[in-house]
User: Which sequence fits this backbone?
């Protein structure tokens, strides 16, 4: 198990930017696929972006070209840079570390609200 803590959410206007951070309690990138998910009210939790253990970065179609997932191996940190934010990006964003169905770890979530 690994503990994850997100930060960096907040209120932003459409077109603005935020950077989310996820602090892990130990080494992650060699052991887990690391991802960001989000859940809006009344919606299923959806994958936003992921860095696999093989180093591949994948994004949901809705955020391609706007969001960038990255990590700092030495600091056990995962980041999500969110640019050109839209109201439909409003959700609770969760950090995830997964190496299989029996080892799937979640942070507590951080709220992102995009509104004028």
Assistant:
């Amino acid at each position: 198990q690994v503990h994850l803590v997100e930060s960096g959410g907040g209120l932003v206007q459409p077109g603005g930017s935020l950077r989310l951070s996820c602090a892990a309690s130990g080494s992650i990138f060699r052991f887990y696929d690391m991802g960001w998910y989000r859940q809006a009210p009344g919606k299923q939790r959806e994958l936003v972006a992921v860095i696999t253990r093989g180093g591949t970065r994948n994004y949901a179609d809705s955020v391609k070209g706007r969001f960038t997932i990255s990590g700092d191996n030495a600091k056990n940190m995962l980041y999500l840079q969110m640019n050109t934010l839209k109201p439909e990006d409003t959700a609770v964003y969760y950090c995830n570390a997964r190496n299989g169905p029996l080892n799937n770890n979640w942070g507590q979530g951080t709220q992102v609200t995009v509104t004028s």
About this structure: The mean pLDDT is 97.
